[in-house]
Amino acid sequence: MIRGHGGNVLELARRLGCDPADICDMSSNVNPLGPMPELLAHLHRRFEVIQALPEVDAATMTAAFADASGLAPEGVLAGNGSTELIYLLPRILAPPRAVVVGPTYADYADACRLAGVPVQQVTADDAGAFQPPLDRLQEALQSGDLVFVCNPNNPTGVLLAPDILIDLVSSRPDCVFMVDESYLSFAGEGLSIAPRAPENTLVLSSMSKVHRIPGLRIGFLSGTPSLIDRLAAHRPPWSVNALAQEAVTFLSANPAAVAQFLKETRSFLETEKQRLEERLQGCQGLRILPSRTSFVLLQLAPPATAAEVCLALARERILVRDCSNFIGLDARFIRISLKDGDANRRVAECLDRILEMAGKM
Ligand SMILES: Cc1ncc(COP(=O)(O)O)c(C=O)c1O
Predict the structure, then answer these.
(1) Residues 24-48: what's their mean pLDDT?
(2) For a pocket test of ligand 1, which of 105, 160, 217 has the largest count of ligand atoms closer than 8 A to its C-beta?
(3) How many domains does the chain have?
(4) pTM recorded for the entire structure
């Protein structure tokens, strides 16, 4: 749903009376190194494709993506961003109940509610460093459940090892699992369960984050052809636009350049994450949760609250995510998405100052 999301640069720019370009957006989880320059150049060259309708079912680019990902084309469905596929799933599968492993991305539960599917939340806790509570999940599961797992998870950054996930989904063939791997390329290579997912499992991926093309709206769902067929029958025609189809075809045809770009991205993020942690270690009353992806979750100690810290950062024209509206988190969590070295240094300096002042109040 439109209101369940985090920071909004345009709204903050309006409030501050400044240009949106002057705001450092550390709330949006997109690759600080992206998009690939080769991709942008290709899209500029091919811009005229917007003059015609795109392929109605995006079959050509879906086959190219499937081939590059080691998947069968009939087991892949493309969507207008992974969001379209998240909302399609509960509506079409119409399960008696959904289970969401949280704290996590709000749209799984929102999509279920819109589809009239009741949602049970199983949330990891702070004491367990937000590791997914697999024992509690097993106890909670009922036959027919549609289960949402985000891996690595937004906003905690926790990654479940592929073997653990495969064990989980295989142990409950009577449930359907949707594993959201939208942030997986930030975590490492070869971690996707898609090529070996059992029949009860759908795997979601997004090009928005890692390729930094959220405006193009490209996402994929993979699974058994029968499940994919059922979902495909309800997707609107021309759901994936012409430039998006160009982008996927280009990326799929250039696997070496993409692999190199992803490698550089991971190496950059690793260094920047370590630097941010070192800088924040000295901050009063701040806990940094270990993350395997491009953002980090921070826990503030009283008296600081997420709302106050986000407001103070906003005055410095830095937008970070207030995580207090995630089910399973509270008013003391914020999420910072890593950007370029300057931005990462600046947010640490500002946080240090803000928390020191909060400690004196
Ligand atoms: C975990 C997760 N999945 C899916 C999405 C949706 O991404 P898109 O629709 O751009 O593919 C987001 C966006 O923030 C997300 O955080």
Answers:
(1) 97
(2) 105
(3) 2
(4) 0.96
